[in-house]
């Protein structure tokens, strides 16, 4: 693909012991902006033979924590191996196996004449941590299904935020830094051609911003970084008139309008239902797809798609039940009727018969209908005024974003993490010149800035995890004041 016309240097995966996730931004930009079809030239699916599709994605994440013998940054997975008596740390080796096993399953199925599909979402934290702890065997296994053209058409990698930061509470200037850092790091591990195929995006925790300006900047960053679509949780979006989605098995256009009235949009595939690993672990999307049939969109009959994502390693279902359910499903699924597809493959297939993104039904982030209605009806000058009035009228209204679950917040009660997180980000952007991105001092400062935004330091509660965040802040502040 990309190397046919551009001779690009291979990137080192590590530089001075740090992940290579910055310094070659112009080359990354050149590669990801390619608009060539990714799956269409190699797919063995014919859209006219398909009644319905299903797509499953596996999400993998382990945070980096300052918990090595000398306080060094290590993967939480390494900490689990070194402290097997704590909590569920005895699962360290099963977790490591889960990070690798998809390669074995895909290869076995393809060699057996089957037609599997899977999408993979691995955080930058995890990829770096695996290399750092000496588990290059896992990365090499993944390279087989990523780079070998025998297996690559069956697998799609999804981009994500490098340090598993939830977008709504990430400082806006850092959103693009996370997105670009992941692309950069991925290219260093798997190569430029593999990066050129990454066109879908998986937001950590399926967390979608619903503040108009944050959502706009998020969509702008995705488009700037060459992404064609993202996955969204169905309950995190609404129609432009504020209703639940009626056609959740069809692709949508996510509309992002900021407080200045500027509008952008990006294709969204709708992840249905909540985040229950049983849905993926027991291959529910396949069985749901069997109940569906073609629908008309813009005068074209297209197959609907059931899209689902789950943790690839977490819980007994994923560890123990998923492999057999996955292998069994592909004994039944072929190239006709009900088929598996990846997100980009599906979108390219329906586009090939004339169904374009402009034809998709529209949606917006949940709660935005109230905002725009309030701005118009009250003749307000700013979106923030509308939000303030809505919060007064309804204490449950918020613009903290929406994710796979409504019973957790990554904001409330975590001021002791969010405040230093915002302070370190502000100091980083005030102090550091982006033109220095190939220097180790820049890379180290960027590392601490991104690591502090890892959602685990809030999701896993007060105590040791917020202490980790405090230590990362201290080191980040020192790196900025000592080196710049």
TrEMBL record:
Signal peptide: none
GO-annotated biological processes: carbohydrate metabolic process
Record InterPro entries: GH57_Enzymes, Glyco_hydro/deAcase_b/a-brl
Keywords, in A-Z order: Hydrolase
CDD domains: GH57N_like_1 (cd10798)
Molecular function terms, GO-annotated: hydrolase activity
PANTHER family: ALPHA-AMYLASE-RELATED-RELATED (PTHR36306), SLR1535 PROTEIN (PTHR36306:SF5)
Name of the featured protein: Glycosyl hydrolase family 57
Phylogenetic classification of the source organism: Bacteria, Bacillati, Cyanobacteriota, Cyanophyceae, Chroococcidiopsidales
């Amino acid at each position: 693909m990309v190397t046919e016309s551009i001779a690009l240097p291979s990137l080192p995966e590590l530089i001075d012991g740090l992940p290579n996730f910055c310094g070659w931004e112009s080359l990354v930009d050149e590669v990801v902006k390619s608009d060539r079809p990714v799956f269409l030239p190699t797919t063995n699916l014919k859209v006219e033979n398909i009644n319905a599709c299903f797509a499953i994605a596996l999400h993998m994440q382990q945070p980096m924590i300052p918990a090595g013998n000398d306080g060094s940054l290590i993967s939480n997975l390494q900490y689990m191996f070194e402290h097997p008596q704590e909590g569920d740390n005895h699962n360290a080796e099963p977790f490591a196996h889960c990070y690798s096993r998809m390669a074995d399953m895909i290869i076995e199925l393809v060699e057996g004449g089957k037609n599997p599909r899977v999408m993979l979402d691995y955080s930058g934290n995890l990829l770096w941590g695996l290399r750092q702890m000496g588990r290059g065997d896992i990365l090499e296994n993944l390279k087989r299904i990523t780079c070998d053209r025998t297996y690559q058409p069956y697998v799609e990698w999804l981009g994500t935020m490098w340090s598993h930061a939830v977008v709504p509470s990430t400082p806006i200037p850092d959103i693009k830094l996370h997105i670009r850092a992941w692309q950069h790091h991925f290219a260093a591990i798997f190569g430029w051609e593999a990066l050129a195929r990454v066109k879908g995006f998986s937001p950590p925790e399926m967390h979608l911003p619903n503040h108009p300006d944050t959502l706009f900047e998020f969509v702008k960053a995705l488009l700037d970084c060459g992404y064609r679509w993202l996955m969204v949780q169905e309950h995190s979006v609404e129609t432009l008139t504020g209703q639940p989605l009626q056609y959740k098995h069809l692709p949508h256009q996510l509309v992002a309008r900021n407080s200045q009235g500027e509008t952008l949009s990006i294709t969204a595939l709708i992840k249905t239902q909540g985040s229950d690993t049983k849905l993926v672990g027991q291959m529910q999307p396949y069985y749901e797809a069997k109940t569906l049939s073609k629908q008309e969109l813009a005068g074209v009959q297209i197959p609907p798609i059931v899209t689902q994502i789950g943790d690839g390693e977490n819980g007994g279902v994923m560890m123990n039940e998923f492999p057999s359910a996955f292998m069994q499903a592909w004994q039944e699924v072929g190239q006709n009727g009900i088929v598996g597809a990846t997100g980009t493959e599906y979108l390219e297939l329906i586009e090939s018969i004339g169904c374009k993104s402009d034809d998709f039904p529209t949606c917006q982030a949940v709660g935005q209908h109230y905002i725009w209605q309030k701005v118009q009806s009250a003749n307000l000058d700013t979106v923030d005024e509308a939000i303030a009035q809505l919060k007064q009228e309804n204490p449950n209204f918020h613009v903290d974003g929406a994710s796979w679950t409504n019973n957790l917040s990554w904001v409330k009660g975590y001021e002791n993490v969010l405040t230093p997180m915002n302070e370190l980000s502000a100091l980083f952007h005030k102090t550091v010149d982006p033109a220095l991105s190939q220097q180790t001092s820049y890379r180290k400062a960027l590392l601490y800035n991104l690591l502090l935004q890892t959602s685990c330091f809030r999701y896993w509660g007060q105590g040791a995890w917020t202490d980790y965040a405090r230590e990362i802040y201290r080191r980040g502040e020192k790196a900025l004041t000592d080196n710049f």
